[in-house]
Design goal:
The chain is of the alpha/beta class. 39% of the residues lie in helices and 16% in strands. The protein contains 15 helices and 15 strands. An eight-stranded mixed beta sheet has the order 11-8-7-4-9-10-12-13, sandwiched between helices. Strands 1-2-3 form a three-stranded mixed beta sheet, with helices on one face. A two-stranded antiparallel ribbon has the order 5-6. A hairpin with a 6-residue loop joins strand 1 and strand 2. Helix 3 crosses helix 6 and helix 8 runs antiparallel to helix 9. The longest helix has 37 residues. The radius of gyration is 28 Å and the shape is globular. The N terminus is likely disordered.
Length: 483
């Protein structure tokens, strides 16, 4: 894995070739791990111009003051410290102009700057000047928004924890590489395969004569955004009615929001109900069930359970579908296109009150009419107890199939001829990921790691070639039989 060289390495030669006169260098004492203390002021000026290219600056006077060679020395030192900090902690995504920093507040970064300058006996700028210099001269360097992802994904949490504590530049560089490997070598590959499945279903739906593929993604909306009456941020209702909204997006068709209340609990039964309703919807439109069903879910207990998998196998046994894929995204990286639909729902009510259930429904459907996504709300008041029906049919030994190392992110159920090895006419296979090859990290003592990343971080990257199981060699009683 190769990290591109610093994009500012050739600033000096670029400035000279452009005929810009070199100004005097900033005179300050280099601090520990400072990789930019040799930048001349003209080079820093070119650096600023690149940062500001294509962006509208709120107050250009700040930029002019900072670029002036007559600017106070402590202000210039602060600017150079910014570049050192951004080089050390910044994480540039290949598809974005912004450089993302740690999940923290600007005030915490300022305190870190003050502590470092105090230890070195330097004069530091005020917090307001610090903030203004950051926002006007380095607008493309932004802190990551706070979220729960680092806590749900063990590797993201470990990388984030080490980034906060590591002080040397080389360790920070190796942590960047580890994050790039984790992002590009694992969960972005999973998202790529998910997008490929969506495209396959959309292409099938474009076949007006006989579409045969149905792709669904299921997720639940945050209950804090589903309370009625909602009176806005200035007032609250003591005993609001809590709704639970389960969104089911059928790619190439639209969004169905299944709304239920406290008369039932969400769980496997509700998810099964939503899947079956969408299958019936497909049949009502085309007169037949889809031959191939692609189901995408997160790792919630209502989705990752043995009852839903049993239902999917039953669909193949009964030949409602001939090929079914059940896929999960890795823990902590389950945000997908359906979350954008939930954002539209929340934007309907973030500024205006909503007092009735009917008003809640009407406003959501009206707002989605202004988007390219068609959406309807269906109230669910009663559902069958599918667990009682399917429970006695489930093979024992699958209690931990969605836990930790045992987690299989993709399952496939497909029709085969009935024979003694497959008496129900359905073959079941599973694998660790939907991508054929991913990068995983193994936590080891640094002295036992072989890679440079592992020697600095204790996270050893390992390439995993993903295979379908059970293979022909897994079961001695079924030698040569897959599934």
């Amino acid at each position: 894995f190769d990290i591109p060289k610093n994009r500012f390495d050739n600033c000096s030669s670029a400035m000279k070739s452009a005929g810009v006169k070199q100004l005097s260098s900033i005179n300050h004492k280099p601090w520990k791990d400072d990789k930019v203390h040799d930048f001349t002021f003209a080079e820093t000026e070119a650096l600023f111009k690149e940062n500001l290219a294509g962006l509208k600056v709120v107050d250009e006077s700040w930029v002019q003051a900072a670029l002036s060679p007559l600017a106070e020395a402590h202000q210039q030192h602060c600017i150079v410290w910014f570049q050192s900090y951004f080089n050390k902690y910044g994480d540039r995504a290949p598809n974005r102009f912004e450089t993302y920093l740690l999940i923290t507040a600007k005030r915490n970064v300022y305190h870190q700057y003050v502590e470092q300058f105090k230890r070195q006996g330097r004069v530091f700028v005020s917090e307001s000047l610090f903030s203004n210099l950051w926002s006007t001269i380095f607008p493309r360097y932004i802190n990551r928004p706070w979220c729960d992802i680092p806590g749900k994904c063990d590797i993201c949490y470990e990388i984030d924890t080490q980034r906060r504590s590591a002080q040397d530049f080389e360790t920070q560089e190796q942590l960047k590489i580890a994050h790039h490997l984790h992002r590009g070598g694992m969960f972005n590959l999973e998202r790529l395969r998910y997008n490929a499945r969506c495209a396959e279903a959309i292409e099938s739906n474009n076949n007006l004569l006989r579409p045969t593929i149905m792709s669904l993604i299921i997720d639940g909306m945050d209950q804090n955004h589903c309370k009625v009456p909602y009176l806005g941020g200035q007032s609250t209702f003591k005993s609001p009615l809590t709704q639970h909204i389960t969104g089911v997006k059928e790619h190439g068709v639209g969004l169905t929001l299944f709304r239920n209340f406290n008369n039932m609990t969400k769980g496997a039964d509700l998810t099964i109900y939503c899947v079956l309703k969408k299958l019936e919807s497909f049949k009502s439109r085309h007169g037949y069930y889809p031959e191939k069903l692609l189901l995408q879910v997160d790792g919630g207990s209502e989705n990752a359970n043995q009852y839903l998998l049993t239902l999917l196998e039953l669909l193949v046994v009964k030949r409602c579908c001939r090929d079914v894929y059940y896929t999960r995204l890795p823990a902590g990286h389950t945000h997908e296109d359906i979350d954008a639909a939930f954002a539209v729902i929340w934007s309907c009510f973030c500024t205006d009150p909503c007092e009735t259930l009917q008003n809640y429904k009407n406003r959501i459907e009206d707002d989605f009419r202004m988007t390219s996504l068609h959406a309807i709300i269906e109230d669910v008041l009663v559902i069958p107890n599918y667990q009682v029906l399917l429970g006695p049919c489930i093979t024992k030994g699958f209690a931990r199939m969605h836990k930790e190392i045992n987690t299989q992110h993709q399952w496939r159920f497909f029709a085969v001829p009935v024979d003694p090895m497959f008496p129900l006419g359905c073959k079941t296979t599973f694998r660790a990921y939907s991508a054929d090859q991913v990068v995983e990290f193994v936590k080891k003592p640094k002295g036992q790691c072989m890679s440079k990343v592992g020697r600095y971080t204790g996270l050893e990257p390992v390439t995993l070639f993903v295979r379908w199981y059970p293979s022909a060699l897994c079961d001695p009683n079924r030698v040569g039989v897959e599934g």
